[in-house]
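Exercise: predict the fold of this chain.
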Amino acid sequence: EMECREQRKQLHSRLSLPTNRPMLRSSFALGAEGSRAPTIPGLLRDVHLGLPPPGVKGGSVSLVQGAYEYYHYMQWTGHGQHRKPYNDAGWGCAYRSLMSIISWYRLQSYTTFLNPTHYEIQKRLVDNCGQPVDDLLGKKQWLGSQDVSLFLGDALGVSCKFLECPSGDDVAANARTLAHHFETQGTPVMIGGGELAFTLLGVDFNANSGNARFLIMDPHYVGPDDISQIQPKWVGWKSQDSLTHLGTKLFHKDKHYNLCLPQRPSCI
């Protein structure tokens, strides 16, 4: 792809195409699904489509831009090289959120990087990102938003911003910032807080009242890839006080949350 960059640049200019995102790479060719095609049977894409309106009176909806895949507990790990369910229930939620984020970059043709296994994620963090081998490699160890950022930076060359929220109330208070992220970057956001991780796909925000709802994609789901069983409990519009599968509030005032906001590369 790099060898053809100048030629693509000329074509983008000649065809009045955007100069900050891929549109003429080989992966866009007809019949060239290749690395963009899901390799795990039944893997779902764009699971927010078809949801009812979020319902914030006078709100404005800002959403993820582009396709992504839904990864959750008990699916195969990686991109299909291990053909059996991988039991990461109770510890693998951030890994699955990371996989969904990687799929967004792949499906937008920013990368051809295939989704890694849990072990491959750990190994890259240890080998290339300075994470301690004894605490992580081969262990059922949670990841945080910093780990997600380190992996994306090393594997994809993607930079990330962070939104630190000392309280769940601060997540809701930052709805305007999150709306701006989806409008300008359009990437899925990883949310880490307490013992749980989620993927944020959008917000519905009323700038006058401050009311907001959050489009949550929950990686803690353990059932089949059946959209009728996933919407709206596991992928749906939630309020700050909506309950998780553990019966706790989504954004609890006494919990600390750190949000990883991956940035969209400016490239063709």
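Check your answer against the key: The first helix runs from residue 5 to 14.
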